[in-house]
Design goal:
Length: 160
């Protein structure tokens, strides 16, 4: 169908409208492809700098007041476990009385019962223990009576 100008009675083609529709379709396709390639804004170039996103590990809240934490002294320093126990208590953790460990590791180890990894990582972060030393408890941890505890910290010789 041809359109007429008000001033001119000659027919005009509707091709200009078709080009506009095609251009819009190209823009939409480009934006969809860009989103698919870069991912949602929280993952791509628009994400906040310095805040990594870990979609595989949703953030789970740790209830410190109900997480049983046992600190055991595996060092030769008298009172080291009591000091760390008090520090965790002040921060709101459900700490058990300090114990002596039957093992004496070179570095502090944080054991955790299944389902308490996040709590163990939080405790390790407070104490400056590397993630490599946070491990699931699959056997006796060297702390008497700690089999039912959620998180067990065995202070190692490198403890300051």
């Amino acid at each position: 169908m041809a359109a007429f100008d008000d001033e001119d009675t000659t027919p005009r083609s509707a091709a200009g409208g078709v080009h506009l529709v095609r251009a819009g379709a190209v823009v939409v396709c480009f934006l969809v492809a860009l989103i698919l390639l870069l991912g949602p804004a929280s993952h791509g170039i628009l994400a906040s700098p310095g805040k990594p996103h870990h979609p595989k590990h949703p953030t789970q809240s740790v209830n410190k007041s109900t997480t049983r934490v046992q600190v055991a002294n595996g060092t030769t320093k008298q009172g080291a476990a009591a000091t760390v126990t008090h520090q965790l208590f002040v921060l709101g953790w459900d700490v058990l009385p300090a114990e002596s460990a039957s093992v004496h590791p070179a570095h502090t180890i944080v054991y955790f019962a299944r389902g308490h990894q996040r709590a163990a990582q939080d405790v390790a972060g407070i104490l400056g223990v590397p993630h490599a030393h946070v491990i699931v408890r699959i056997r006796h941890s060297g702390v008497k009576g700690a089999l039912q505890d959620d998180v067990i910290v065995v202070l190692g010789a490198s403890t300051r």
